[in-house]
Amino acid sequence: MTALLQVQGLRAGYGAVEVLRGIDLRVGDGEAVALLGSNGAGKSTLNNVVSGLVRAWSGRIAFDGADLTRAHYRDVVRAGLIQVPEGRRIFPNLTVRENLELGAYARGRERRGQNLERALELFPRLRERAAQLAGTLSGGEQQMLAIGRGLMAEPRLLILDEPSLGLSPILVEELFALIRSLRDGGLAVLLVEQNVGQSLEVADRAYVLENGAVRFSGLPSELLGSDELRRAYLGL
């Protein structure tokens, strides 16, 4: 499978503290990859470095063959690499429609109308609340809004950072069904989650981070099939 995102030897951190210690990671075109690990393993830092929000110390990030290692985050978005961050980070004092339309600010502006319609078809509850202030939505609806806003930018790769955090079990089921549908539709997804079981059900491949380094990479069946790996890296 052609590598859409290729991360090689990536090191990064904050101040003098190294968080990522030589990360190698690949996401193929149309592939869903799960990035697993406990809090503090470096998952969100990796997302932010790939997205251009945190500078890499060394290593290389290539997206669709282009070197994005030192790229500004706006150029990363324009290339089609879109992150839906942990915590949703919607604009609470703007309406649902306005939040969605902002997703097309840097990419997909020409097709904003049709992309808006697509997002509202995916999330009928957002259509019902299009004129409502985003801050008045429930947690699950805010997560729908954050994902819909990401889709407005016509991503080639969508990074989802802890999308199930704080959601009810029913909404978690709906969320992972959506992720599976997006993958089946040909969208590449990097899924960063602590919900191990659900993540491995929708992923084509998985990586496990521990203390800023990749401790496992391979098929979900390999990870789940090894008692040693499950105990060591997943606590199962």
Automatic annotation (TrEMBL):
Any one Gene Ontology BP term: L-amino acid transport
Domain of life: Bacteria
Domain (ABC transporter): residue spans on this chain: 5-236
UniProt entry keywords in alphabetical sequence: Amino-acid transport, ATP-binding, Cell membrane, Membrane, Nucleotide-binding, Transport
UniProt key word Transport: yes
Family to which this protein belongs: Belongs to the ABC transporter superfamily.
UniProt-recorded name of the protein: ABC transporter ATP-binding protein
Organism field: Ramlibacter lithotrophicus
